[in-house]
Amino acid sequence: MKKYEIMYILRADLEEAARKDEIAKLQKIIESEKGKVTDTKEWGVRDFAYPIKEQAKGYYVILKVNAEKPLAEFQRVAGLDQNVLRHLITVDED
């Protein structure tokens, strides 16, 4: 299995319940593709250096994931989701 690190930014104006639902939904997509989330870190709301999709702040989430294949479905859903402002998937060398 390959190790990946996923960073995504949610809209800062989401209610706490909606934010938790969004995080759970994105994690479920990874698990449906036979991936395993080994660690989740929520950095919370942070200011942006420049506006992203007309937003000045975002809620940062970092995931450590083990998966056998690339996370194409996660990338597709995160790209279409209006609550996800940005996402980045990198191969974790640790």
CATH class: Alpha Beta
What percent strand? over 45%
| Cα separation of the termini | 13 Å
Our count of domains comes out at 1
What is the ordering of alpha helices and beta strands?
EHEEHE
| Name given to the CATH architecture | 2-Layer Sandwich
Indicate the structural class.
Answer: alpha+beta
| Main sheet specs | 4 strands, antiparallel
Number of strands: 4
Account of the 3D structure:
The chain is built from two helices and four strands. It is globular and about 35 Å long. It has a four-stranded antiparallel beta sheet, with helices on one face. The protein is α+β, with helices and mostly antiparallel strands. It has a single domain, classed as 2-Layer Sandwich (Alpha-Beta Plaits). It has helices at residues 16-32, 72-80, and strands at 2-11, 36-52, 55-67, 84-91.
